[in-house]
Amino acid sequence: MQFIDLHKQYDNIEEKVNNRLKNIFTHKRFIGGEEVTELERMLAEYVGVKHVVACASGTDALTIPMMAIGLEKNDAVFVPSFSFFASAESITLAGGTPVFVDSAKDTFNIDPTSLENAIIDTIENGKLTPKGIIPVDLFGLPANFPEIRRIAEKYNLFILEDAAQGFGGKINGKRACSFGDVAGTSFFPAKPLGCYGDGGAIFTNSDDLYEKIKSIHVHGQGKDKYDNVRIGLNSRLDTIQAAVLIEKLNIFDGELKKRNYVANYYSEHLKDIVDTPTIPDKYSSSWAQYTLKLSSSDIREKMMKRLAENNISSMIYYPIPIHKSTAYSQKNGDVELEVCEELSKTVISLPMHPYLSDNELDKICKTISDLCSE
Ligand SMILES: *Cc1c(COP(=O)(O)O)cnc(C)c1O
To answer: 86: which of 6, 55, 59, 350 fits an S-S bond (Cβ 3.0–4.6 Å)?
Structure first.
């Protein structure tokens, strides 16, 4: 049983995707074709923001906004350590310094108390200047934006929403990718909205940020194409990927319903046996991952083994908190983030995609409940 099934999805959209690709092979505008503009318009409308810039990856979708804001080496950006490496890497790439924050036990998202403490410590310490926060919509659940907004205003910090996994989530009916001053998402194939390669998009309501972001994603270009006004990147989304995404966005709401069905099925059948995901009131998740918290790393090892014996894939997101990674541990090795270190030892993610059948779900739940009742 596959962790993510891209075959069944393709069966559903094959003809439409192939027709769009054929059209691109005819018009041959492989860079900046009208499909890119069309996708940007669709994404802006879906999320409910004024501006969208498609770019080459989710990592760039985080790096470019911080290049636009402008960071210096002693500028601190606060980021949860329990996330994918790129959440922090983008800060370093943009010239700033990541300060790692602990996660909430129940939602796995950045913990507002730990965040405010980290900001206060940083101010008292005096070496770094707090500039911004990158809340991550981990596993598809939007971060605690009402609380984070309050803290950001109190300390005058920007919010860059890392919605790489969050596209499709909501708080109070408002969609993910609209919660920060600016947001970035990823279209890596395994994300809730994925393309057939690398891709990403940046979302903002700010006209000023939009102009800078648009310029930076094409070598810092100015009004005159060959007079570059700042340092940028080559980070465009390919026309071919935009075409794939247009067709995937057309079926996205239907897929999101099915993801919710899968998540509810798991939770119904597993909630009395293991610690299932918490979705706070008025929040909804895009279910990038369905992640259980187990009581020990031993039990997790046993469960992964048992699932594998039954031909069921499972994954660990994330086995090493970012501040403990080789790249960051030299400077952050003594940082203590109790919850995120505990989560790294005990979480396990189950197969999650819209095409799981009741039979498959039943088999997964039974394998877990059999193991837990031994
Ligand atoms: C996938 C991911 C990214 C990076 O996206 P890419 O498209 O792979 O560059 C950043 N942050 C988080 C939380 C992610 O899951």
So the answer is: 59
136 within ligand 1 shell (Cβ under 6 A): yes
Note the pTM of the prediction, 2 decimals: 0.98
Tell me: cis bond preceding 155? Omega within 30 of 0 counts.
no
Task: Return d(Cα 200, Cα 177) in angstroms, integer.
Answer: 12
**Interval 5-22 mean pLDDT:** 94
84 and 349 Cβ atoms separated by less than 8 Å? no
Reduced to 3 states, what is the DSSP secondary structure of residue 219?
A: coil
In this model, does residue 84 exceed pLDDT 90?
yes
Residue 135 Cβ inside 6 Å of ligand 1? The answer reads: no
Residue 159, both tokens: 């919010």
Q: What is the mean pLDDT of residues 199-215?
A: 98
Tell me the average pLDDT across 151-163: 98
Checking if the pLDDT of 247 tops 90, the result is: yes
Ligand 1 atom showing the smallest separation from residue 137 Cα: 13
Which residue in 191, 235, 227, 190 sits closest to 62, CA to CA?
Answer: 235
Using CB atoms within 10 Å of the CB of residue 261, give its burial: 0 to 12 exposed, 13 to 18 middle, 19+ buried.
Answer: middle
* Tokens 């909430």 sit on residue: 104
- 86 half-sphere exposure, CB direction, 13 A CA radius: 19
Q: Ligand 1: which of 138, 167, 188 to mutate, judged by most atoms within 8 Å of the beta carbon?
A: 188
**Distance in angstroms (rounded) separating the CA atoms of residues 3 and 280:** 25
Instruction: Tell me the C-alpha distance between 153 and 157, whole Å.
Output: 7
Q: What is the pLDDT, as a whole number, of residue 135?
A: 98
Per-residue pLDDT, averaged over 338-347, amounts to 97
Q: Which two tokens stand for residue 54?
A: 């498609």
Closest CA to 149 of 126, 172, 124, 168: 172
pLDDT tens by residue, 24-63: 999 999 999 999 999 999 999 999 999 999 999 999 999 9
The three-state secondary structure class of 341 is helix
Kindly list the strands in the beta sheet with 51-55, ordered across the sheet, starting from the edge strand earlier in the chain: 51-55, 200-204, 182-186, 158-162, 129-133, 75-80, 97-101
